[in-house]
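Feature request, filed as a ticket because there's no other form

It would be nice if the structure record came with a short human-readable summary line next to the C-alpha cells. Right now we just get the raw output. Example of a typical job, pasted below so the devs can see what we mean:
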Amino acid sequence: MQQYRPLSIDEDGQEPFENLNLPTRNSHTSYHSGVLWLCIACTAVNVFILLWYPRGSLCDGNSSPFNKKNIHTLRRPSQYVGFDTIPRSSPPIPRNFSNFPFAVAQIDEGEPHKVFEVNSMRFMALSGTVYPEERKVIISNKVSTIMQFRAIDYGMEICELQIHLPPSSASAGEIQAISVYRLESSAPLNLERLSYKTSPQRLGRLGDIRSVPGDETHWHRRISCSLEDVLTVELACPQDIPTGTRCNLEWSQHKEEANPGDFSEQSRYTW
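Raw output as currently delivered:
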C-alpha cells in the first residue's frame, strides 16, 4: 500500500517557501557562465579560421572566390525544362529571327589602356536620363568594335552572322572595308574595364568585307552555337591595306532599321 507523507502547511494554508523546489542562484550563475564560455570559444574558432586560412584558400584548385564582379560567369539555368519530350512535326518547320548584340564597345590599338564610355549616346529628357538601345559602331585604322551576342530560344541553334553595308562613299586615299574576327570569350565582358590591353585574343578571321560603290554589301557567315552561348566578334580594318590609306567606317546599331550598317545574328530551328 502506497504511503503518503503529509505536507507541512503554514497558517495561511500555503506550503513553506523553503520546501519548494526552486532553482538556486548558483544554478543560474553556472548556466550563464556556460553560455558565455561557449560564445567565447566560437568567436575564437572563427578568428583562428580567418587568420590561419588566406582568403580563397578554402576553395578548390579549379575555382576562385565568388563575388558580384564574376556573377556573369555563372551558367544560366534552363527555362525550357522538358521541351525535349514534346512531340514535334517531322520534318521540322524552318523559322528564323534577328538577334542583335547585347554589348557593343570600342577598343583603341593606339591607346591600349583607354576605356571608351559605355553609354556615350545618352541624353537628358524631361523624365530624366535616357539610354537609347542603339550603339555606336566605329572602325578605323586604330579603333575597332567588339560585339557580343547570346544564342537564345530553344532549338534555334544554327547561328549566322550578318552585316549589311550601304554603297561605298569612300574618297581618294580611303577605303571602307572590315575584317571580322572571332574572339576567345564565352562570357559577357565588363565594358567598364574593356580596353585594347584587356580585350580577348583573336581566335581566327571569319572573313573580309569590302564596301563597293553603287551597290549594297550583304555579308553572312554561319557559326555553330548552343543555347545560352555567348559569341564574341571584333570588327576591325583589314591588316593588308596599303600604307597611308585611311580606313574609316561608322554607324549606329539600330534594331528597327535594316540598313545601313545593320549587324545581326539569325538562328534557325534544327528540329
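Something like this underneath would help us a lot:
The radius of gyration is 34 Å.
Residues 25-52 form the longest helix (28 residues).
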